[in-house]
Specification:
- Chain A: One of its GO terms (cellular component) is plasma membrane.
- The complex is a heterodimer of chains A (500) and B (535).
- With 500 residues, chain A is α+β, with helices and mostly antiparallel strands.
- Chain A has two domains: 120 residues, Penicillin-binding protein 2a (Domain 2); 263 residues, Beta-lactamase.
- Helix content of chain A is 38%, strand content 17%.
- The N and C termini of chain A lie far apart (94 Å).
- Classes of the chains: A alpha+beta (500), B mainly alpha (535).
- At the A-B interface, helix 1, helix 2 and helix 3 of A face helix 8, helix 12, helix 13 and helix 14 of B.
């Protein structure tokens, strides 16, 4: 039997070899694939098991991980657990859920917050040796808490967004979207994370309309209206039309342009009227400056037609239209369409038809004008500090585009000052401060106009460029213009910046 | 090997000393250091200090291991010196992992219970000690051949009795009596090994020699197929009734393996494999629950299965993958995410925290135990002992293959657990009994025979040939034997007496007259006068 025992022993070795191969196959060859499997919760658990870095605004951790005694080890807490404080920053922080949902900075800077970024390899090596837990890095934002708070308060219960940019650098000082959500309810460690998310994702936000008919906002509370929603820019786009005109060399602010009572859209029988059917000019002519000051639609529609689609689109794209940004969250691209019919081109001259913009985009237009024609790339992350508070990444201001010349910028500044001084945007005036702005009232939905105001101040040495959008223009019928409703919000944000 | 025991007067002086089992003592220290170190590291990681029960586990494990070591020195001094330390190491690492999952309770409650598991380890070691103390010769179990058969069949059938068996994880391999639960298959495998050894040692010639040769394979006669048919039927009954391919494979593989050992006929293996395969395919085609388990095995990532039926195996794969090459470290992984990580899936838990390197190490320790068992089977002189040791070693290898193969998807998942490591009293008890049997058989195998060594007849210092029971083995082989004798000069001067440890000598007991103990192909098996023959 010894021969068979020896043969059996060979069989046993073969069996063990099979087990070793199958184990190696799983743990070595296929391990990467298994680790990345969407059904594998270990990644989330592992990240939760490590200390996730905080998101810091002005020294305050608006998102932080707190040690808890459950399977995850840490609970993500927003706004120190205060629902309102959490909501003020929610569009920026986003949320980090154990269900795998993740948004905002939490998503865009996940690798640093979780400590898994490639540039943290030295830290991880140290931790491996010392046996310490992996520590995530802190993400310090450019937001100014006072400006953010002012924008939040000024927006009140209205549906809309506010973006404030430092023109010289591109630093985003405020980014607010309302209504928003409390990230704390999405970061729970039980089933409510899912149910709360589904409730928010499916939530319809009814909006008031001029005729009282039922309507919902196309955007829910999870949408960041400041960078993720586009609207007709309305009259604020007249800044781009004006820029294209002046850049063409054919126009100055004092150039007389046609400003008829009505304008027949080319190729159609549709008569365009001015806001409220008003007359821009008794003579049917007015300066470009005056046309912008009172926001004359017929003048700008005709100007748009004169300049043509290509000139307008080139100018729009020079301001950042048709492009996405990583601020570091990905923005929705503002759009200026191509190959439009002549009537649609005419409409884009006044920010309707084939053009749509995010609030961030219109703040960038104002910021470029404020910064002598140089558009800086907007950014939210000032720096990233590792667990030892050493700065491992610092954002330095970057030129994004140069849409207009300094002289064009100066000309547009004068025109925008006129808008606030004695035009459609007087509500944005601040005593002793030269505010340059532009109003806008767009018809995304005729029943509920979208109200805009974009501005910068002080005009001589701009510290901030702001864009305000309000979705719910239908709430107060004849008062509903960007100048009346949106301008005061921009004014409060500017004041918050100037009183820093 | 230090103590020099005196030879019994009148008996042959065998030039052997009673081993002091220094190697075993040294290996035990290594095993205990590794085990206690693992428990300590679990504590450091989980509670930031010594884990609760640290001293109980340390002292208990050390005490019992030491007690078994001393017991072996007195009761089985020639027994294999590697098996005990290897098994203690596996117990220690298993205890550390059960403790690690137990300590997770604050975050993630599991039925892992290190205290209870440890109690069973102690009890199982105690049982092994008692068995080693009272069982002086494994051959005395040969008379229980048919008792063992009945016990085995009853044990296998127990989970099928309504009210007694309850499906866990889809497999009915557990029985419940009051607060106690039991995996009868663990004990049945011992009973069947004893039965097969006893049955085959008696009938091996009939099974081996009769029959025709077809295509180079010696096929048995139809009337000799009876026993294999019975075992085949039982195995398929287990497969269908308990829906557990593992247990079924365990018993049938054990039988075919031992049949091959006994008859040395590959034809039996061929017949066995064909029968089992066709039976399994038949069961698969007829029974829905067998098909379901095969589906889970083949397509665990099927979206319809992954949250339900295949959840456990997929989680196990994720755990293993998470461990990667070097593992997360004790207490640093998430083995508790896998259902039954402390028992059925302790392999994936160990893989997650100790990595591929750790698992390959553990597999090697198991391989060492199995291979030592097979070596002892080669070394032992009686046919019953050869078959029993070979069968027990092989069934352990089979069980590892079935359990780990199930987790790593070589075969469908089974309800059996990893010997010595998984939490579970029946598994610990049964496998420690296997260890005790292997140790007892190895003691008999290595114990110097009371027979004359071949060379001693031809050596320069010839000894008197005493009352050797048989002269047949005493073939004069001059070459190496002279060297043997020279290598131990002066031994003949030792007073006789060591054979007080020797086996009861006599032809009926089948003491082998094979001078090259544990070695040569020419082993003469004298298993009862009827079967004497040289193979």
């Amino acid at each position: 039997m010894n021969a068979t025992l020896r043969r059996l022993s060979t069989v046993v070795i073969a069996m063990f070899m099979a087990l070793m191969v199958s184990t190696t196959w799983i743990q070595f060859v296929r391990s990467g694939e298994y680790n990345e499997n969407p059904n594998n919760n270990r990644k989330i658990y592992a990240e939760y098991g490590n200390f996730r870095g905080p998101i810091v605004v002005g020294g305050e951790a608006v998102a932080a991980s707190v040690a808890v005694d459950d399977r995850y080890g840490y609970q993500r807490v927003y706004g120190s657990g205060d629902a309102t404080r959490a909501q003020i920053f929610a569009p920026v922080t986003g949320f980090y859920s154990v269900t795998g949902n993740i948004s905002g900075i939490e998503n865009a800077k996940d690798s640093f917050l979780s400590g898994s970024a490639d540039s943290l390899w030295l830290d991880r090596l140290q931790n491996l040796i010392t046996g310490e837990e992996v520590q995530g890095s802190s993400v310090v934002l450019t937001l100014d808490p006072a400006v953010q708070q002012a924008a939040w308060d000024a927006l009140g219960d209205q549906k809309g967004a506010v973006v404030a940019i430092e023109p010289a650098t591109g630093k985003i000082l405020a980014l607010v979207s309302r209504p928003t959500f409390d990230p704390n309810v999405l970061a729970t460690h039980d089933d409510t994370a899912t149910t709360n998310y589904e409730a928010l994702a499916n939530m319809k936000l009814p909006t008031a309309t001029i005729d009282g008919s039922a309507a919902n906002s196309p955007y829910g509370p999870l949408t960041n209206r400041a960078i993720g929603a586009t609207f007709f820019p309305g009259s604020t786009f007249k800044l781009v039309t004006s820029a294209a005109a002046i850049e063409s060399g054919q126009y100055t602010p004092s150039t007389q342009i046609p400003a008829p009572d009505t304008y027949l859209l080319p190729g159609t029988s549709t008569e365009m009227q001015n806001f409220g059917g008003e007359r821009c000019s008794a003579t049917g002519q007015m300066t470009l400056l005056d046309a912008l000051r009172i926001s004359c639609n017929t003048a700008f529609a005709q100007l748009g037609t004169t300049l043509g689609e290509d000139a307008l689109r080139e100018q729009a794209e020079a301001f950042g239209f048709n492009d996405t940004l990583e601020i570091p969250m990905s923005t929705t691209a503002s759009s200026y369409e191509a190959d439009m019919s002549p009537d649609k081109v005419a409409q884009t001259g006044i920010g309707q038809g084939g053009v749509k913009a995010t609030p961030l985009q219109m703040a960038m237009v104002a910021a470029a004008i404020a910064n002598d024609g140089v558009l800086m790339e907007p950014y939210l992350v000032q720096q990233i500090q590792d667990s030892d508070l050493a700065v491992i990444e610092e954002t330095s201001p970057k030129r994004y585009k140069t849409p207009i010349s300094p002289s064009t910028a100066e000309a547009l500044t004068q025109m925008m000052l006129a808008v606030v001084n004695d035009g459609s945007g007087t509500a944005a005036q601040i005593p002793g401060v030269a505010v340059a702005g532009k109003t806008g009232t767009a018809e995304d939905d005729p029943r509920q106009p979208t109200l805009w105001f974009t501005a910068f101040a002080p005009a001589e040495a701009p510290e901030v460029a702001v864009a305000v959008v309000l979705e719910n223009g239908g709430e107060s019928t004849n008062e509903s213009t960007g100048g009346r409703r949106a301008a005061p919000i921009a004014q409060q944000v500017i004041q918050a910046v100037l009183s820093r | 090997m230090s103590g020099v025991a005196p030879a019994e007067p009148g008996m042959l002086q065998t030039d052997e000393r009673v081993p002091a089992r220094v190697a075993e003592a040294f290996l035990l220290v290594v095993a205990l250091v590794l085990s206690v170190g693992a428990i300590w590291m679990v504590g450091e990681s989980m509670v930031g200090g010594l884990p609760p029960g640290f001293w109980t586990y340390t002292l208990g494990l050390t005490g019992l291991a030491l007690a078994l070591h001393l017991l072996l020195r007195f009761r089985a001094p020639y027994a294999d010196q590697v098996i005990l330390p290897a098994v203690v190491l596996l117990n220690g690492l298993g205890l550390a992992m059960v403790l690690r999952i137990d300590l997770e309770d604050a975050r993630f409650a599991t039925p892992a219970n290190a205290g209870r598991h440890f109690m069973w380890i102690l009890l199982a070691m105690l049982c092994a000690g008692v068995l080693l103390w009272f069982l002086r010769d494994h051959r005395s179990w040969r008379k229980y051949t048919y008792t063992a058969m009945i016990a085995g069949i009853v044990l296998v059938m127990l989970p099928l009795i309504p009210g007694l068996g309850r499906p866990i994880n889809g497999a009915k391999v557990w029985i419940f009596i009051g607060p106690f639960s039991l995996q009868p298959a663990e004990f049945a495998k011992i009973a069947f090994a004893v039965f097969f050894a006893g049955y085959l040692v008696t009938n091996r010639d009939t099974l081996a020699l009769a029959g025709r040769k077809v295509l180079g394979l010696q096929l048995p006669r139809a009337r000799d197929l009876g026993p294999i048919l019975v075992v085949w039927a039982i195995s398929l009954g287990v497969l269908v009734g308990q829906t557990d391919l593992g247990t079924s494979l365990l018993f049938f593989g054990l039988f075919v393996g031992m049949l091959y050992l006994a008859t040395e006929r590959g034809g039996w293996v061929a017949i066995g494999l064909v029968m089992f395969a066709s039976g399994a395919v038949l069961a698969w085609s007829i029974f829905g629950h067998v098909q379901r388990r095969v589906d889970i095995w083949l397509n665990p990532f099927d979206p319809e299965l992954i949250t339900g039926a295949s959840f456990q195996i997929v989680q196990g794969l994720f755990g293993l993958a998470h461990g990667g090459m070097f593992g997360a470290g004790w207490g640093e992984g998430m083995p508790y995410l896998v259902p039954y990580a402390y028992s059925d899936f302790i392999y994936s838990a160990l893989g997650e925290e100790l990595g591929l390197t750790g698992l390959l190490g553990i597999l090697l320790v198991y391989l060492v135990i199995v291979e030592r068992g097979l070596r002892n089977a080669i070394a032992v002189r009686d046919g019953f002992g050869k078959l029993l040791a070979g069968g027990l070693a092989f069934v352990m290898a089979l069980q590892l293959f079935v359990v780990i193969g199930g987790i790593t998807r070589i075969i469908p998942l089974t309800g059996l657990t990893l010997p010595f490591m998984a939490q579970g009293g029946s598994s610990l008890l049964a496998n420690w009994v296997v260890v005790a049997l292997l140790l007892r058989i190895s003691d008999n195998a290595r114990r110097p025979s009371a027979l004359p060594m071949r060379g001693q007849l031809a050596g320069p210092t010839p000894h008197e040939v005493g009352q050797g029971p048989s002269g047949t083995g005493a073939l004069p082989v001059a070459a190496g034997a002279a060297r043997d004798a020279v290598a131990v000069p002066g031994r003949s001067a030792n007073p006789p007496g060591e054979s007080s440890f020797g086996p009861p000598a006599g032809p009926a007991d089948g003491a082998a007259a094979d001078g090259a103990a544990g070695g040569a192909e020419t082993t003469v098996i004298v298993d009862g006068p009827r079967e004497g023959g040289t193979r």
